[in-house]
From TrEMBL, chain B:
It comes from the Bacteria. InterPro entries: AAA+_ATPase, ABC_transporter-like_ATP-bd, ABC_transporter-like_CS, MacB-like_ATP-bd, P-loop_NTPase. Keywords: ATP-binding, Nucleotide-binding, Transport. Belongs to the ABC transporter superfamily. GO terms for molecular function: ATP binding; ATP hydrolysis activity. Coiled coil: none annotated. PROSITE patterns: ABC_TRANSPORTER_1 (PS00211), ABC_TRANSPORTER_2 (PS50893). This is ABC transporter ATP-binding protein. SUPFAM superfamilies: P-loop containing nucleoside triphosphate hydrolases.
Length: 780, 253
């Protein structure tokens, strides 16, 4: 007899079980392949885009007044610099425009679309025809995340003036293409550009220096060096010099994509685990059921190795064909994930076939199947032919009569169900593990979604943002403290703080430093070790900065601002995803050490019982003459997090859908197998007078404790380990401690949902018992 | 005058296999009375087991009526039949069919607790019955796989008797046992019948059939012989055997 024939016969014998396993492995291979392809291709994809679009590796933006004619020459002489380009631009510090679900405030750099440039030339991916006079070209993310289409109206609000345009085209750019970088790039046709230059003040006249390097991994250092040099060389007192480098932009743009891809791989691992548990269960069952057959095969001279091969082969056939199918399917679904990548990066994802990753996915799945099958079936070698022919009596183990009916308390059906549960301990351990894994995965994804899409407080806190309601930028000559006191007196104002963000250098690193005197009043304490500064000689730094400069709590660091420098004692270590984790915090007194006339220029207002818009209106009416601008922080956050919401929602839906599928299929498989295996037993019970509904109840009750235990353990793991797991996932982005809100009622709802689903499925599947007649048993 | 427990009218059972109809029972009119030990005999395929399971509510007839203790079984659905069986019938099978994940005592109680909720009383009765059939205390907590065939079948009889059925149905109960074990099992049947328990048993073994007081002979789905043999007595065994052999010879056995 051929081993392949034996394997195929085994598959045919248990078609539905083979089909369920096939589906699990298809799903696992699909997720694994997508996840691995994205993780391995995303960096290369970004680098390729930089090359294709000829985008600069470093971009330095400044106001024209700060620019010095020798900056370009200085830059060109830096080691590793291959090309430089300078270009005039319009730099708007705080432009407001609608993006996604809200109004976004962002720095904007506007270029002349008709100017000749080598680096970052305008390459439209969509263009409106025919073109109109007041059109504007915007990054592709405006289409994928911003909700714009060609021809839509687009209004930029700056210093309370509105500038109206129509979207004339979308372009790809790696440098300033998404709203998570803090600065966005627009392009205007020359007439519109020149008109806008005339309309705006001189402060908006900007200059952009683009730099290409031999090695883009050195771009961060080059950017820091250039900014330091330019800040020191400029004679302008109100200088504005900012920079972006390709490594920073890549890490910011690919962060969420990597997290989504990691979740896909992690979930694929869970599905593979579920499949392996099912395989273990099926192999054990098939050995017990086919014990006599094994005996016959051994008796007629088949070696244990041949019998093992026939068992393993059937699972290899299923695993291999399902992996190939899953990988083929992943290419069909990849455009959907490509859409998520495009919305997160603002770049068009072109899917390529990655044979190596495909082979790795197939190998990982098939190899783990082979190992588990081998380990589960290895006991075949120890079974003697004579024992197998006797039906493997020695494999039965009746160690204990659990819950003897004579003594145990409880209803008959409950006791019989519990007996059945304990008699099938191995199978129930399998269900338990699967329920734990799936409940945990569901809670993980729902917590992720809740914190990113519903209550965003913890998610926003990760960025280091202070969750006030209104941001007010005060004119330089105004009395900031006086305005603070006045606003404090206004109705519906809960509290007001001076809370600035300024760019400093700490031990040579560019660091975004918060300044306030009231860290104890902030609602997002980003310090996770030590404390925020209290005195003028103290500072807290992020762990990213801490590891860059190799200093921690108790050490002294040198902080530079403009041409001044001072030493500060580190009192705390903080975390933040925003500004690449390069953040620090000083007191007002501390800042005054570097600039004696420093008095703060930004107020953070916390409201209670009034809409943000109404408050902004009121504050402008009363203090409009000393305010540069106001910002609705809530709306800004809404607008900035919209694209994360879409990505995480897709992941959550996928995880929940797969959870439902797996719960349904596992219970279907287990109960069906159990009914077939216990057909004789159920027939006897029907013969002695048990009704179908009584037996159905017994089956359901026998699964109940396992399902409840699995759901409870999964729920507890979800409650206690979702934050630590997310912290690990986000650690590369600068997160050390994560406090996502985990609502117990939501966990309870998920657990109850899974529990109800599992019970409905077990009741429906156990209806098969109806088909077993007592007479059918006898006739057999 | 003994009371009729089961009365069938024009009982028919037809099986359909691959479109071919096979009429296994044909218009049977049977009366079974209380306290009788009725033996159903016949050659293989004559419909013995089919008749046993039809009149016991284990299977539904194709046509005809079965009046069992005043109820027409033909009108009951599957769950009503289950309730009927637990209250009125006891079954002993050739393959024994004890529940192998339960101890001896639990096997009996799993059946008894369906009807009698008084656990203490039921446990006492189970133990008494087990003792009566020769299963001593040392075996009560064993699993079926740890019993001999004869012991297991005697447990099967106790399980069938625990709810004091109107009729004890047995389908070749000694078919899988050696002769010594068979004798002990048959003695149990004889004893319970002497205590007033009605028994209907299918067999093709003459020694087994001798235990009955009435022999029904089935051929091609029709009762073609009905022998009144009288109550079993070991002393009259030879005479009964002669009478039965003669009857069977007449039936073409």
């Amino acid at each position: 007899m051929n081993i392949m024939y034996l394997a195929m016969a085994n598959i045919r014998k248990s078609k539905s079980a083979a089909a369920s396993l096939f589906i699990f492995i298809v799903v696992a291979a699909l997720l694994l392949n997508i996840g691995l392809m994205v993780i391995t291709q995303i960096n290369a994809f970004f680098d390729r885009k930089v090359e294709q679009l000829n985008d600069p590796h470093v971009t330095i933006m400044m106001n024209q007044a700060s620019y010095h004619s020798n900056f370009r020459e200085f830059t060109a002489n830096q080691p590793g610099v291959t090309e430089t380009e300078e270009e005039k631009s319009i730099n708007i510090d705080m432009a407001k425009f609608i993006f996604g679900d809200g109004e976004l405030s962002s720095s904007v750099i506007i270029f002349n679309a008709d100017a000749k440039r080598r680096m970052g030339p305008l390459k439209l991916v969509e263009k409106r025809k025919p073109s109109s006079t007041n059109e504007i070209f915007v990054p592709y993310s405006f289409k994928t995340s911003g909700g714009y289409e060609l021809g839509d109206n687009f209004t930029i609000t700056y210093q309370d003036k509105k500038y109206e345009y129509r979207i004339g085209g979308f372009f790809e750019t790696t440098m300033m293409g998404t709203n998570n970088i803090g600065v966005m790039k627009f392009m205007l046709p020359e007439p519109s550009y020149l008109k806008l230059v005339d309309e705006l003040d001189h402060q908006s006249e900007g200059m952009v220096l683009s730099v290409m390097t031999e090695d883009q991994t050195q771009s961060s250092k080059l950017k820091n060096d250039l900014i330091k040099e330019f800040q020191q060389s400029t004679e302008e007192t109100n200088s504005y010099i900012e920079g972006l480098d390709v490594e920073l932009v890549k890490s910011v743009n690919t962060l969420t994509i990597n997290i989504v891809a990691t979740i896909l791989v992690a979930f694929a691992a869970i599905i593979v685990l579920v499949s392996l548990i099912v395989i273990k269960f099926r192999v054990s069952n098939s050995i017990e059921d086919g014990m006599a057959n094994i005996g016959v095969l051994k008796a007629i001279g088949y070696t244990s190795r041949q019998i093992l091969a026939s068992i393993i082969l059937q699972f290899i056939l299923i695993a291999f064909s399902a992996s190939v199918a899953g990988i083929a399917l992943s290419y069909i679904l990849m455009p959907f994930f490509g859409g998520i990548i495009s919305s997160l990066s603002g770049l068009i994802w072109h899917q390529t076939v990655d044979i190596m990753i495909n082979l790795v996915s197939i190998f990982l799945v098939t190899f783990s199947v082979v190992v588990v099958t081998l380990l589960s079936a290895i006991r075949v070698r120890r079974i003697l032919p004579v024992a197998a022919l006797r039906g493997g009596i020695q494999t039965h183990s009746f160690r204990k009569n659990y819950f003897p009916l004579e003594k145990a308390k409880g209803s008959l059906h409950f006791l019989l169900a519990i007996k059945s549960m304990l008699a099938h301990a191995k199978q129930n351990v399998m269900i338990l593990l699967i329920m734990i894994a799936l409940t945990f995965a569901s809670i993980f994804s729902v917590v992720l979604y809740y914190n990113i899409a519903s209550d965003k407080t913890a998610f926003v806190n990760l960025f280091g943002a202070e969750p006030a309601n209104i941001y007010i930028a005060v004119k330089p000559d105004a009395d900031t403290k006086g305005l603070l006191s006045n606003i404090e007196q206004m109705d519906h104002v809960r509290k007001v703080n001076i809370f600035d963000l300024i760019e400093t250098r700490i031990d040579g690193q560019t660091v975004y430093t918060n300044v306030t005197d009231h860290y104890d009043q902030l609602e997002n304490n980003i310090v996770y070790e030590g404390r925020q500064p209290k005195f003028e000689n103290e500072i807290s730094i992020s762990w990213v900065v801490s590891s860059q400069i190799n200093k921690g709590i108790g050490d002294t660091v040198e902080v530079e601002f403009g041409n001044e420098a001072g030493s500060y004692l580190v009192t705390g270590i903080s975390q933040s995803i925003g500004n690449s984790g390069q953040v620090a915090a000083l007191t007002m007194g501390g800042m005054q050490q570097l600039r004696s006339d420093y008095k703060g220029s930004t107020l953070y207002v916390y409201l209670d019982g009034i809409s943000n818009n109404d408050f902004i209106k009121n504050v402008h009416e009363q203090y409009g003459d000393i305010i540069i601008e106001t910002l609705d922080i809530d709306e800004n956050i809404e607008s900035q997090t919209g694209m994360y919401t879409a990505a995480v929602f897709a992941v959550m839906l996928m995880v929940l859908a797969i959870t439902v599928l797996v719960v349904v299929m596992i219970l279907y498989l287990v109960i069906k197998t159990m009914i077939i295996k216990r057909k004789k037993e159920f027939g006897v019970m029907k013969a002695i007078g048990y009704s179908t509904i009584q037996l159905m109840n017994q089956i359901s009750i026998s699964f109940l404790p396992v399902i409840i235990t699995g759901v409870v353990i999964g729920g507890l793991l979800g409650y206690f380990f979702t934050n630590p797991m997310l912290s690990i996932l986000l650690s590369s982005a600068g997160v050390k401690r994560l406090d996502f809100i985990i609502h117990v009622p939501i966990i309870l709802m998920i657990c109850a949902g899974i529990f109800i689903l599992a019970n409905i499925v077990s009741m429906i599947v156990s209806r098969r018992i109806k088909k077993i007649s007592a007479y059918g048993l006898i006739a057999e | 005058m003994k009371k009729t427990i089961i009365k069938t009218e024009k009982l028919c059972k037809t099986f359909s296999t691959s479109g071919i109809q096979q009429h296994v029972l044909k218009n049977l009119d049977i009366h079974l009375v209380e306290e009788d030990f009725t033996i159903i005999m016949g050659s293989s395929g004559s419909g013995k087991s089919t008749l046993l399971y039809a009149i016991s509510g284990m299977d539904k007839p194709t046509l005809g009526d079965i009046d069992f203790a005043g109820k027409n079984l033909s009108t009951l659905n599957n769950d009503q039949l289950a309730v009927f069986r637990r209250n009125h019938c006891g079954f002993v099978f050739q393959q024994i069919y004890l529940l192998d994940n339960m101890s001896v005592l639990d096997n009996v109680l799993a059946s008894g607790l369906l009807v009698n909720k008084n656990k203490r009383e039921l446990v006492k009765k189970s133990k008494e019955l087990l003792k009566q059939v020769g299963i001593d205390e040392s075996s009560w907590f064993k699993f079926p796989a740890q019993l001999s065939g004869g012991e297991a079948q005697r447990v099967g009889i106790v399980r069938a008797l625990i709810n004091s059925p109107k009729i004890l149905f047995a389908d070749e109960p000694t078919g899988a046992l050696n002769s010594a074990s068979s004798e002990r099992v048959l003695d149990v049947f004889t004893n319970v019948n002497r205590n007033g328990q009605s028994v209907v048993m299918v067999t093709h073994d003459i020694q087994t059939a001798l235990r009955g007081n009435r022999i029904l002979y089935l051929r091609d789905g029709v009762i073609c012989g009905d022998l009144q043999l009288g109550a079993y007595s070991e002393k009259e065994n030879d005479e009964r055997q002669e009478k039965l052999k003669h009857f069977l010879a007449e039936m073409g056995w």
